C-alpha cells in the first residue's frame, strides 16, 4: 500500500505544453505539499495545503496551479512549460502542518525539451 | 528565516568505517529537526527526527543524531556503514506553525568497498 503516490513518474514534454501531475495520500493526513528538487538536488517548498486550503505559495510563477479536490489529493497543473521547469517534483503529506515530518512520494521527473 | 547548512557536499567512506554528516540550522524558535535519505531515483525516506526531550535520537537503519542547541547542530552518525548506505542525505528543519520543511543542500555519500 503506497502511502503517497504520484503519477506519472516520468514526464517528457515540449516547451509551451500544459501538463498535470497527480498526487494521492492514503495516510489520512491533513496537510499536503509540493516540493521541487532542482538539478543540484536542492529541495524547495512550492505549495502547502491544509484541509484543501492553500497555506503557502512560495513565490511560484502563476503558470503553476495546484488544486486540492479533497484532503487526500493534491494535483499540480503547469501551463506553458519552460525549459527551466525541468526538475523532480515531489508530493508529500504530514499529519499536521506544524512543521512535523513529511512523507514523500516517489517523485515525478519532468523534462521539458 | 529558517535555513539549513550541510557543509559537506560529498563524502566518501570505506565500508565498515564510521560516518558523521554535519548539519547546522538557523531558526529563532525551537526547531523540529529531521534527517532524510534519498536513494537514486527514489523519494525521501525519514531516517529520524527530533522534536524535544533526549538530544540523542535513534533512527532507522542504525543511524543516530545528536541535537546540540549551543552549536545549532544536528549531526547524523552511524558506527559502521554498509554499501547500501550510499545515497543522498538531507537535513531539514521545521517548526510549530511553519507549514513547511526547509532543507539543506544535501550530502552525497559514497561507500568504498
Report on this structure.
The complex is a heterodimer of chains A (113) and B (113). Helix content of chain A is 0%, strand content 56%. Chain A has strands at residues 4-7, 10-13, 19-25, 31-37, 43-50, 53-57, 64-70, 73-78, 87-94, 103-104, 108-112. The mean pLDDT of chain A is 92. In chain A, strands 2, 4, 5, 6, 9, 10 and 11 form a 7-stranded mixed beta sheet that branches. Chain A has a 4-stranded antiparallel beta sheet with strand order 1-3-8-7, with no helix packed on it. The model of chain B has no long low-confidence stretch (mean pLDDT 93). With 113 residues, chain B is mainly beta. Chain B has strands at 3-5, 10-14, 19-21, 24-26, 32-38, 44-50, 56-58, 64-68, 73-78, 87-94, 102-103, 107-112. In chain B, 0% of the residues lie in helices and 51% in strands. In chain B, the strands form 3 sheets. In chain B, strands 2, 5, 6, 10, 11 and 12 form a 6-stranded mixed beta sheet that branches. A 4-stranded antiparallel beta sheet of chain B has the order 3-9-8-7, with no helix packed on it. Chain B is globular, with a radius of gyration of 13 Å. The A-B interface holds A 4, 31, 33, 40-45, 48, 50, 55-56, 58, 90, 92, 97-107 and B 32, 34, 36, 38, 42-46, 49, 51, 88, 90, 93-103, 105-106, 108.
Give the arrangement of secondary structure elements.
The complex is a heterodimer of chains A (113) and B (113).
Chain A: E1 4-7, E2 10-13, E3 19-25, E4 31-37, E5 43-50, E6 53-57, E7 64-70, E8 73-78, E9 87-94, E10 103-104, E11 108-112
Parallel strand pairs in A: 2-11
Antiparallel strand pairs in A: 1-3, 3-8, 4-5, 4-9, 5-6, 7-8, 9-10, 9-11
Chain B: E1 3-5, E2 10-14, E3 19-21, E4 24-26, E5 32-38, E6 44-50, E7 56-58, E8 64-68, E9 73-78, E10 87-94, E11 102-103, E12 107-112
Parallel strand pairs in B: 2-12
Antiparallel strand pairs in B: 1-4, 3-9, 5-6, 5-10, 7-8, 8-9, 10-11, 10-12
Amino acid at each position: 500500500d503506497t502511502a503517497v503516490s504520484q503519477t506519472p513518474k516520468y514526464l517528457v514534454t515540449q516547451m509551451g505544453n500544459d501538463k498535470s501531475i497527480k498526487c494521492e495520500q492514503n495516510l489520512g493526513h491533513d496537510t499536503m505539499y509540493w516540493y521541487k528538487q532542482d538539478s543540484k538536488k536542492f529541495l524547495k517548498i512550492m505549495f502547502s495545503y491544509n484541509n484543501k486550503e492553500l497555506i503557502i505559495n512560495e513565490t511560484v510563477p502563476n503558470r503553476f496551479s495546484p488544486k486540492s479536490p479533497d484532503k487526500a489529493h493534491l494535483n499540480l497543473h503547469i501551463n506553458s512549460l519552460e525549459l527551466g521547469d525541468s526538475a523532480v517534483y515531489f508530493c508529500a503529506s504530514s499529519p499536521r502542518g506544524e512543521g512535523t515530518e513529511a512523507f514523500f512520494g516517489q517523485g515525478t521527473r519532468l523534462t521539458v525539451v | 528565516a529558517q535555513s539549513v547548512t550541510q557543509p559537506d557536499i560529498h563524502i566518501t567512506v570505506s565500508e565498515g568505517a564510521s560516518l558523521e554528516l554535519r548539519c547546522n540550522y538557523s531558526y529563532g524558535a525551537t526547531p523540529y529537526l529531521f534527517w532524510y535519505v534519498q536513494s537514486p531515483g527514489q523519494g525521501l525516506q525519514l531516517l529520524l527526527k527530533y522534536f524535544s526531550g533526549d538530544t540523542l535520537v535513534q533512527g532507522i537503519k542504525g543511524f543516530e543524531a545528536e541535537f546540540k542547541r549551543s552549536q545549532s547542530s544536528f549531526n547524523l552518525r552511524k558506527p559502521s556503514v554498509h554499501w547500501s548506505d550510499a545515497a543522498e542525505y538531507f537535513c531539514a528543519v521545521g517548526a510549530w506553525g511553519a507549514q513547511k520543511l526547509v532543507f539543506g543542500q544535501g550530502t552525497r555519500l559514497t561507500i568504498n568497498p
